[in-house]
């Protein structure tokens, strides 16, 4: 069986060590661990900024690095196993492990614990940071990071935090977020990333792309069974049922994350992508 290059790092000249005996390559290497240090970084099929993006990685997420060459790194994301190239200056090795995760759609990173200061960056939900202290300014509480920068305290929670929340509610926080092909952040997101991030924030793992989710996310159900939290798949697209009649999805029609009447969406999408290819439900 042909291995999926999105989830397996192999080329004729180089491959990850775990694939020894499964693929042919001149060399097999163990990855070296590194962390993303850019707010959002695109992962590409080739080391070329002119190439389209496959997905994105968020601040604090970890990767295994198999090659560093000409300012690029060939990596595999620990969060979902996705393989690709990113600029070398967007990752750093030997970073202390993060302690907290951003739980709001977006949050500002300030140079110090003071909301009146010009922010230095914007971090997306799912970003991971290392908190080393706390501070209060005029009644506002902040967490302070290793470099002295600060985030509003209510916008982060300890790593592993899960309030048992509804992933549909998480997805709905992204309403009106711009649609971005390959996007995986609160700054721009695509359909399958909306599913993945909503699940991630409620303690559930998911692969990245629509075809991967359609093949392995939960169990198949019929259209007649659809209810809140179920997933509807088309060729190259996925939506989440908000209730029996409404979907929420990041889509190229509105170029946003939007609510849409399910029956109307089936009719609208049908002329280009045909009818839905399947429906799935998570256990429990």
UniProtKB/TrEMBL annotation:
Keywords: Hydrolase, Protease, Thiol protease. The keyword Hydrolase applies. It comes from the Bacteria. Pfam families: NLPC_P60, SH3_16. Signal peptide: none annotated. The keyword Protease applies. One of its GO terms (biological process) is proteolysis. PROSITE patterns: NLPC_P60. GO terms for molecular function: cysteine-type peptidase activity. InterPro entries: NLP_P60_dom, Papain-like_cys_pep_sf, Peptidase_C40, SH3-like_dom_sf, SH3_16. Residues 161-283 form the NlpC/P60 domain. Belongs to the peptidase C40 family. This is Cell wall-associated NlpC family hydrolase. It comes from Rhizobium paranaense.
């Amino acid at each position: 069986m042909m291995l999926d290059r999105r989830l397996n790092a192999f080329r004729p000249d180089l491959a990850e060590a775990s694939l020894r005996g499964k693929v042919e390559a001149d060399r097999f290497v163990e990855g070296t661990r590194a962390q993303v240090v850019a707010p959002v970084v695109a992962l590409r099929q080739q080391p070329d900024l002119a190439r389209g993006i496959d997905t994105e990685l968020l601040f604090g997420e970890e990767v295994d690095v198999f090659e560093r060459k000409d300012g690029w790194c060939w990596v595999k994301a620990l969060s979902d196993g996705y393989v690709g190239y990113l600029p070398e200056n967007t990752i750093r090795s030997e970073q202390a492990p993060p302690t907290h995760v951003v739980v709001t759609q977006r949050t500002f990173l300030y140079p110090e614990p003071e909301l009146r200061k010009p922010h230095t960056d914007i971090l997306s939900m799912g970003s991971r940071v290392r908190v080393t202290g706390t501070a209060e300014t005029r009644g506002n509480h902040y967490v302070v990071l290793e470099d002295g920068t600060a985030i509003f305290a209510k916008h982060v929670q300890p790593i592993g935090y899960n309030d048992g929340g509804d992933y549909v509610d998480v997805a709905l926080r992204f309403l009106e977020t711009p649609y971005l092909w390959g996007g995986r952040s609160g700054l721009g997101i695509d359909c399958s990333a909306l599913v993945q991030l909503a699940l991630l924030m409620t303690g559930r793992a998911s692969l990245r792309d629509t075809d991967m989710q359609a093949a392995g996310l939960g169990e198949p159900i019929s259209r007649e069974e659809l209810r809140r939290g179920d997933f509807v798949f088309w060729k190259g697209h996925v939506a989440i049922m908000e209730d029996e009649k409404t979907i929420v999805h990041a889509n190229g029609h509105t170029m946003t994350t939007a609510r849409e009447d399910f029956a109307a969406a089936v009719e609208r999408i049908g002329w280009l992508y045909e009818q839905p290819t399947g429906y799935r439900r998570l256990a429990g």
